[in-house]
Amino acid sequence: MTTFSIEKIREDFPILKEKIRNKPLVYLDNAATCQKPQAVIDSISHLYTHEYANVHRGVHTLSVKATDRYEGAREKVKNFINAQSTKEIIFVKGTTEAINLIAQTFGKANIKAGDEIIITAMEHHSNIVPWQMLCEETGAVLKVAPINLQGELIFAEFEKLISDKTKLVAVVHMSNALGTINPVEKIIAAAKVKNIPVLLDGAQAIPHMSVDVQALDCDFYAFSGHKLYAPAGIGVLYGKQALLEAMPPYQGGGDMIRKVTFEETEYNGLPYKFEAGTPSIADVVGLGAAIDYLTEIGMDNIANYEAELLQYATAKAKTIKGLRIVGEAREKGAILSFVLDKIHPHDIGTMLDSLGIAIRAGHHCAMPVMDFFEVPATARASFAVYNTKEEIDILMNGIEQLIEVFG
């Protein structure tokens, strides 16, 4: 795509033509999941119509074609995040499984009683609970770096937590509840002083900005396909090759083995050591198609456009009396979380749905964030490449109608 055309982009997403309660759909729940372009839908349909078979195991034509498509997608992921090798790209169900994989393999092999893991106070539950489980099992200690009232990491306090006991730093790249973009370069640099591995939860960041894992020098990076305009049920764990090779397998079964006898099993090499069983073949192909689609638009173009949307929405929101934005970090992605005086977020979500507007209302799998801001939940409008300023106007008009109705 030589020029950024929002009209052309919107045409690429068939669901945007849907009507909700006889109103044009205004889809602003992108932090939960993104809609799919026709290119992704077509790629899956083509596979099932013309090329579907199991991968890696067959010598017949369909199996070869399906394997080529599957491994071709792995190559696309490698290039998209600038990994060194396809051996560093592990296909998983999503970010949650990727983090659990690290906890159950790297964690169990390297973390023992008295060791410490550092996270931040803005983490999604999927980057809290696996570490709590590991700490319960091993006797390790979970340390939480605090945030300020703008929703930003207090970096000086994070640095104070780093010690000789720290064995892993696991932090979100971009908060799903606040939109905060963490200073991951500084975080990684601080951890590297003591040779501490760093895992980045990239589920929210990956659809909104260019990610270069070699430039970041992170040890692990996890993300989900469904937030990247790809199908649900597929995700990626990137890991540095040396670390992945040293880690034990996560699951046992077919394809992660070289040789099996009743006496012993010889495990397969990377990346297959961590991909037991028949994979989600069509979803991987869909992920590859989504990456092609986004690459054609350009991630920098997407980041710039979404920054415009966020700036516009924030300015509009600040004109509405009784609306409070939750999370106003200086470095922030396309998420607007807010509360309204005397109106519960669930009522906001329900009333806006009657106008055809889809937002998210709840704790966003980040209950500690809600506790910190002393709110039961927030309403969250989150923007994607296909959203428009006109849709933001519809949202803000809807909010003003709500306030009138509730008095």
Write the SSE topology.
Blueprint: H1 6-11, E1 19-20, E2 23-24, E3 26-27, H2 38-51, H3 61-81, E4 89-92, H4 95-110, E5 116-120, H5 129-138, E6 141-145, H6 155-161, E7 166-172, H7 184-192, E8 198-201, H8 213-216, E9 220-224, E10 235-239, H9 241-246, E11 257-260, E12 265-267, H10 281-297, H11 299-317, E13 323-325, E14 335-340, H12 345-353, E15 357-358, E16 360-362, H13 367-373, E17 378-382, H14 389-406
Parallel strand pairs: 3-15, 5-6, 5-7, 7-8, 8-9
Antiparallel strand pairs: 1-2, 4-10, 9-10, 11-12, 13-14, 14-17, 16-17
Helix pairs in contact: 2-10, 3-10, 4-5, 11-14
Largest sheet: 7 strands, mixed
User: Cα-atom Rg, whole angstroms?
Assistant: 22 Å
Q: Give the CATH architecture of the largest domain.
A: 3-Layer(aba) Sandwich
What is the count of distinct domains? 2
CATH names the topology of the largest domain as Aspartate Aminotransferase, domain 2
Through-space gap between termini: 47 Å
Strand order of the largest sheet: 4-10-9-8-7-5-6
The percent range for strand residues is 15-25%
How much helical structure, as a percent, in the residues?
40-55%
What overall geometry do the principal axes of the alpha carbons give?
A: globular
> What class do helices, strands and sheet pairing give?
alpha/beta
What's the tally of helices?
14
What's the name of the CATH homologous superfamily of the largest domain?
Type I PLP-dependent aspartate aminotransferase-like (Major domain)
Instruction: Write down the overall mean pLDDT.
Output: 97
The strand count comes to 17
Low-confidence stretches: none
CATH class type of the largest domain:
Alpha Beta
